Batch of 2 targets.
Target 1
Amino acid sequence: MPEERADPRQVRSREAMVTAATALLTEGGLEAVTHQAVAARAGVGRATVYRHWADLLGLRLAALEAGMPPLSPAPEDVRAASGAEPRAELVHYLRQLCERLDDAQAGAVLAAVLGGAQYDDGMQRLRLTVLTQIVDSLRPAVTAAVARGRLRADVTAETFAMTTVGPLVYQRFLAGARLGRDMVDAVVDAALRAWAP
Amino acid sequence: MPEERADPRQVRSREAMVTAATALLTEGGLEAVTHQAVAARAGVGRATVYRHWADLLGLRLAALEAGMPPLSPAPEDVRAASGAEPRAELVHYLRQLCERLDDAQAGAVLAAVLGGAQYDDGMQRLRLTVLTQIVDSLRPAVTAAVARGRLRADVTAETFAMTTVGPLVYQRFLAGARLGRDMVDAVVDAALRAWAP
DNA sequence: CCACTATGAGACAGGTTGACTCACAATGCC
DNA sequence: GGCATTGTGAGTCAACCTGTCTCATAGTGG
């Protein structure tokens, strides 16, 4: 990344603005993120917000991106044991995803992505980023599970993500439920049964 | 329904406005639905739109409700055969749901519900309506499948909806895929395997 | 110490929002 | 058919929001 020598004033106000933007997103959804609201919330001049993001979409995307940091990888021991018992690693990532979904901030990002992806190009890209992030984090464990004979040979990370993440998203955004640990366990086990060889 | 004696002028303009509102929703998402836009599209005075829906939320909810008519029941023969073979009825409803998801109009409604339900009370109610509609349409077939020994005794319509509708929603709104008939078949079969006794 | 540059404040035109009025024409009733 | 009722379209208006610009100020790097 071209981390150009940045003026501390720039990074300071940028940080304040991004923080304000994600807070607004969390509290009121995408529509609540406007130049004016961000300026007020960040204690920054309105012109400054326009200087950093000339258009509304860019501003909103910045809020969304900041609100969805990458999932952290499974701890070393879980990953090491994955060859023998892939379930633990799968559960690890999906639990993390669930905490994200239950968390207001990342939940707001996901909701915005689900709800707005089709009307906008930048949102499309963001949707793809989120999707790739989720699928790729599951991929090693899925591959291991296939190798270990726990899943059919033709099951891909994409398929597995569909049968696990799908139900979780459904529960959270359509059924309006909170996602406990047992929910993750149930979903993973159901998926393992569904795609057992 | 209290179908009060309505002035034909009222119903005429109301109809035009609702049609315009759903069209706008379909094309540009919830944000595109405003009093002004609806008035222009419906060929109606701006004041008229305000007269019918004093606040923006009400207007948008009207657009959403009109864009999501109830699922039609399975044909007689499929329902009759459901005791013996429940799979066909399940597939029937989920196929219909898929067509809806692929359809721009109902897809827009679902997307709006997924994306905006948490920030608003009226949207919460709409989410519940949509959810209930889906789950209830599956319920008879799920009950039949349980009775027939195709599903575990403890599988409810809610659970089954989660494991089928979830993946479909995932494919459509997160993976950005179109939903073919084979996708429905695969999802239903996976769910039947996952919850087989 | 000085040139540079990001910032905050404010001015400004253009558009949108809601609330209001008023003439008009479609409607329902007699 | 005539008439009171009522929904409507057009228009006005103040308040607000948006996007752009200017300018004095102060933090920054050399």
Note: Residues 7, 9-10, 13, 44-48, 51 of chain A lie near DNA strand C (CB under 10 Å from a C1').
Target 2
Amino acid sequence: MARTDTRFRQAHNQMLDHLRTLPHDAPLASEVQFATRLGVSRTVVRAVMQKLAADGILRQDGRGKRLVRAPRDKDRLPLRDDYIGRDELEARFLDWVLRFDVPAGTALNITQLARQFNVPTHALQEFLASLGQSGLIERRPRGGWRLLGFTADYAVELSEFRQVLELNAVRSFAALPADHPAWADLARVRDEHLDLLSRIERDYHDFSRLDGRFHALINSVVQNRFVAEFQKVISLIFHYHYQWDKTMERFRNEAAIGEHLRIMTALEARDGPAAEAAARTHLATSKETLLSSMRGHHLA
Amino acid sequence: MARTDTRFRQAHNQMLDHLRTLPHDAPLASEVQFATRLGVSRTVVRAVMQKLAADGILRQDGRGKRLVRAPRDKDRLPLRDDYIGRDELEARFLDWVLRFDVPAGTALNITQLARQFNVPTHALQEFLASLGQSGLIERRPRGGWRLLGFTADYAVELSEFRQVLELNAVRSFAALPADHPAWADLARVRDEHLDLLSRIERDYHDFSRLDGRFHALINSVVQNRFVAEFQKVISLIFHYHYQWDKTMERFRNEAAIGEHLRIMTALEARDGPAAEAAARTHLATSKETLLSSMRGHHLA
DNA sequence: ATTGTGCTTTTAATGATAAAAATCACCGCT
DNA sequence: AGCGGTGATTTTTATCATTAAAAGCACAAT
């Protein structure tokens, strides 16, 4: 077969919902209006109209379209469980790779993966291609894909790259003019750190999100699409690993809060070099945590 | 139809070439040996063998395969002009985008582009997806692709990103131990600069390649797959723009050689800060050149 | 002039299909 | 038994025809 008619079915059902709100024998809006309202092309609207006319729900002659009878529940078209979207696919794929510790060098099987993730093979192909630049995946010369895998090497290089980007961001941050809105954000995030620190015993789990916000803030002062793109990969991977390594979690998080605070204090004092040094320390810790988490997971 | 049989045809012709070197009635090697020699799977070898047997060129019963008659020229299978490879596609695509100055926001037409570049639609899809991270291209929500375009913004951000990476590389370079092989490479590249400078009047065109080698050398000391990946994009784009902006080319190149030499002198003196400063100057010039080249091209 | 509809053309997502690779099963020889 | 080979079968992936959806065109009605 070809394209799914999911769009048609959804539009059809939405149209039923709309018709139900209308009084009997009411005149209907134009095709273009419906098209924009439902977010589909006019072709789909026309197909829906025709179906509805055939089912005796409305009558159409030219532009004089009218409601004939109220739609019933059995008029709805069932829609098969749809394919998952791109973001969902990304999440599931990374989860699979990282959680099951797929060995480096594994040849990926498109068909099998496509079934596993419930996507058409094409979508998977495209997804893998888009992952190409992240260095996790490689195209085999004679077709097929190979998972390069999330190795220790990879983690080291990722951390170093992260360090390059983030130290640069810290330097830029320290040089911001006093009236830049980022300073207000920084004060807010600092308070959140202090707040979390006061109740760390109980809520140490909340650190992961705060960590994400902190690094996002630091990097936000560098307006650069390439940096932003990589930041996505980086935060994704670090985020995933934080989820597992539960050893010493409370301790690690408390220490990390301290390191964050030192960076922020130095920044607020406009002391660039001190901020850079503090950031360097923090990133080193972060790298160590990532590596040890990998070692632990690998032995498991 | 399905997969092309290009592989089969190529293997077939290669096999003919091989058979021609053999004496009459000679016994042939095993299928596996041919498979590895021709770089294809055994299935293809068998298909070729069968065809050759059907054409009366060889006789096969079990493992006793023998040459029956020498192959003639008309036994060769014609192979239709094959699809172009990935690198070729990349080159052509960038050439198209940059040279024809395709306006930002243009919706790309897969089918048309596939015809234009002589690739199957699928290959193009995959290529566009792989370009996703480069920020030149965007997936439209309801299918299709949009060219974000090579705008001034893009050039600025690319240059800044390049600066972050390359300054980091320069710092690493200055800190290398004295016995690192990169120092020898540096001396060689420096001599090449001096050499080109002495004959700049005539050979100023040769600078583009030397420039590429210089920056590649600087970045080679950072062993990082992410850096390497981006370096590819960066050098590609800068390379393309160098090709057009012919204004003042001789002057620009001479000046650039001087800037390169200053960086190298500082490096050889192990003066990190001086090298960084020189690199900063050079990258600023480079950025200006790129921007002005774009302005010139845009008005044309 | 604007808004709407009927009809046609174009485009891209999907599944079927065939080529190629990988795997299995078995044989003959040492 | 173990190695090197062939025959047959089973995946697996690149390509293409097909169809839903979008875009475009011409004209009618207000």
Note: The beta strands of chain A are 58-61, 64-67, 107-108, 137-139, 145-147.
